[in-house]
Amino acid sequence: MQVRPEDLAFVARFVEELCGVVLDESKAYLVESRLGRLAQEHGCASYRELCERARRSGDALLRTQIIDAITTHETLFFRDQAPFDALQFKVLPELIDARTRARAPRRLRFWSAACSTGQEPYSIAMTLREMFPGNCPWEFFILATDISDAAIQQASRGWYAHHEIQRGMKPAMLAKYFVPKNGGYQVRDELRAMVAFRRRNLLEPFGDLGLFDVIFCRNVAIYFDAARRRDLFFRLAQQLVADGVLFVGSAESLLDLGPRFVPHNHCRATFYRPNMPAPRTNARAASGAAAAAVRR
Predict the structure, then answer these.
(1) Taking the domains of the chain in order of start, what are their residue ranges?
(2) What residue spans of the chain are helical by DSSP H?
């Protein structure tokens, strides 16, 4: 079933209200490929009828089904690798050293926002275990959230098919942290115990989640408009401790958000410390780059 041009704007507004994903005229194919089967299942003659039914009836299940269908769940273990190297060899040693010198509690909190089916938070957990292979004197907590109920359910199970494991997983890590099960692989219980999965819409307030030392929010804001993107990253910054670190996608840059978001580079990865005073020279460079980006 094709989406009618006169219906696309209505569908796009409804989807943006639900989850922030912006669909323009070039995304008609996405509406058809993601919502076609759902429209047929509900006996809707058009995509507009499907969205009108979800809006008018307040059908929470239908709204959830639309969100699950339209949001992207494409991911893999240790995606882009560089952020996990930077986490292991730069960010974590600095955070641990700072906490030790301050005699603060030996506790670090991580948030994998838009975690999809769990590959990212489990990759973070494996990185932590690799740093402390024996008895760990530190307490680690990983919160993993996603807007999709289906994605959260799969992530919580911690079971992955063979083709999902092969994407990004090193054989040594597979042998150490997974067990064969039902033709696929199950995350070991000690690794699953490090991660708590919850449904969370990033458009909604998340001040109740507490403060984090490290936040991963990668490849989700690229689907937002400029205002929602800016709002998201400033709200994420509020959830970081003073020296907390924010990782975004490898193709994302936050230079346009001002000198508060000065990039730090290590292990071919870029991350941000939005709550720490930036070096003056870096701040000027970031401001100049942001101004240049605006002029372009």
Answers:
(1) 5-70, 82-295
(2) 5-19, 28-41, 47-57, 60-70, 82-86, 92-101, 119-131, 149-157, 162-166, 171-177, 189-192, 226-238, 280-295
